[in-house]
Amino acid sequence: MSRRCPQWSQAVPMEGEPKAHEVVKFMDVYKRSFCHPIETLVDIFQEYPDEIEYIFKPSCVPLMRCGGCCNDEGLECVPTEEFNITMQIMRIKPLQSQHITEKSFLQHSKCECRPKKEITARQEKKSVRGKGKGQKRKRKKSRYKSWSVCDKPRR
Question: Which CATH number fits domain 37-119: 2.70.180.20, 3.30.1520.10, 2.10.90.10, 3.20.20.30?
Answer without folding.
Answer: 2.10.90.10
